[in-house]
Amino acid sequence: MTVYTREQIIEQLRGIEREENVRIVYACESGSRAWGFPSKDSDYDVRFIYVRPVEWYLSLFEKRDVIERPISSMLDMSGWDMTKALQLFRKSNPPLLEWLQSPIPYLEETTITQQIRFLAKQAFSPRSCLYHYLHMARGNYRDYLQGDQVRLKKYFYVLRPILACRWIERENTMPPMEFKTLVDTMLSEGSELLKDTINQLLSRKIAGDELDYEPRLDVLNEYLEQQFAYFETAAQAVNSADTLAEDRLNQLFRAAIAEAWGRGI
Fold first, then answer.
1. CA-CA-CA-CA torsion for 226, 169, 39, 151, nearest 10 degrees?
2. Which pTM value belongs to this model?
3. What 8-state DSSP symbol labels residue 4?
C-alpha cells in the first residue's frame, strides 16, 4: 500500500501540467478521504480543472476535454477542461459542486475557482441535485445491499447520498462533503439505534476493518427504504433554479485563460 503526501500529489499534478501543456487552476481530493471515511486501502481520488493555451481553443475540430491517468499505486487522477467544467457548472453538476467545497484542496493558484464559487448559489439547482443523489443511493442499494449477506462498506455509499437529499430538502443548499457532518445534522432527532449503528460502522471503517460481507443491518435497510419511498414524491416539490447566463460564463472562461497564462484575450 502506497501512502502519498500532499507534496507528492502536487508533484504529480505538476507533471501533468508539463506533459499536457496545461495550467491546473484547481485540484482537490474527491473520494472517501474527502468524505471522511477512508479505509486503509482507499485510493487517492484527485480531481482537477485545467486550462489550455488560447490557441488550443481556436480550432475547427472538436478535441478531448478530459485528462485521465491510469490508476496506479492507489493514485486515481483525472481532470476536466475549463470548457467542460463551466458547461457542467451551468447544469448544476453535483460532482463539480462537491469538488469546489472539498475539505482537501491541493492546488488553487488563480482567482477563477473563487469566482466560480461566488456564482455557485445561482447555479445550484436543488431539484436536479437531489435527483442525482437519489439515483446514486438507489443504484448502490440495489447493487450491493440486497440479500441476507451484504458488503457493509457499501452502506456509506447509500447513506451519504440519501442524507444529502435530506440536506437539500431542508437547507436548499449544496450538502457538505463530510459524512459525519451529514449524520450529525440530518439525524439530530430520531432513532438512537439508527445513529449508533451508523457511528459504529463509521468507527470500524476508519479503524481499518475490511467491512466485507456480513449479515445485513436491518435498522439501516429499513431507514433507507423509508427514505426512498418518501423522496419518490417529495423530490417533485423541491425547487429548481434558473440557468446562468451564457455571457457570464464566457467571461469566466476568458478570464481563466488570461489569468492562467498571463495574457489578455
1. 20
2. 0.93
3. -
Q: Helix, strand or coil for residue 223? A: helix
Query: How far from 85 is each of 26, 48, 230, CA to CA, in Å?
Result: 11, 10, 32
- Residue given cell 493555451 in the structure block: 53
φ/ψ region of 123 (left if φ > 0, alpha if ψ in -120 to 50, else beta) reads alpha
Cα 26 to Cα 22, 105, 109, 145: the distances in Å are 12, 8, 7, 35
Place of cell 445491499: 145
DSSP H or E run through 70: strand 66-72
Taking the chain (265 residues) in consecutive chunks of 10 residues, what is each chunk's mean pLDDT? 89 97 97 89 93 95 94 91 96 95 95 93 92 97 95 96 97 94 86 92 87 94 97 90 85 94 69
Q: How many Å apart are CA 79 and CA 210, to the nearest integer?
A: 30
d(CA 49, CA 17): 11
Q: Taking the CB of residue 249, how many other CB atoms lie within 10 A of it?
A: 19
The Cβ of residue 181 has, within 10 Å, a number of other Cβ atoms equal to: 16
Residues shown for the chain: 265
